[in-house]
Write a structure and sequence with these properties.
about 140 residues; mainly alpha; 6 helices; about 60% helix; globular
Length: about 140
């Protein structure tokens, strides 16, 4: 019996999430688009830290970055860079908190919104944590 050649196209999970994020964005579904962008760059990084604290911090920070941009889009090299900035800040914070008597905070979601990362653009997040801010509802859905 002769085997016929079969073409199987490998779908990369990170690319799937990235493309899906753009689809959601075009439909105006920012919450799902943000979730997919977060997932795309997390998967793409190969990071194996699945702790809820890290994932919460990452989702909040990546969302804040995306919502602070003038255009709701991100290129792959930019997303990789943003991921690494967030990851580096998380590692530094864990070291700092490890030396502290206080340890990790109780409400990590709220605390994560107060951590500043020097992203490569200027954004004014003053008043961001306020419940009346329209961004808050989107961040709540992602976090």
């Amino acid at each position: 019996m002769q085997m016929l050649p079969c073409r199987v196209e490998k779908v990369r999970l990170d690319r799937f999430f990235y493309d899906l994020a753009h689809d959601f964005s075009r439909q105006g579904d920012l919450s799902d688009a943000l979730n997919c962008f977060c997932d795309a760059f997390l998967v793409r990084s190969g990071d194996h830290d699945t702790s809820q604290d890290w994932l919460t911090f990452y989702n909040v920070q990546f969302t804040m970055y995306m919502l602070g941009k003038r255009r709701f889009d991100i290129q792959i090299p930019e997303g990789d860079m943003v991921f690494q900035l967030i990851r580096d800040r998380w590692v530094d914070l864990k070291k700092e908190l490890g030396k502290s008597r206080l340890g990790l905070v109780r409400n990590l979601f709220e605390w994560s919104k107060t951590v500043e990362i020097d992203f490569p653009f200027e954004v004014d997040f003053s008043g961001f944590p306020g419940q009346c801010d329209p961004i808050f509802s989107i961040l709540e859905q992602v976090g």
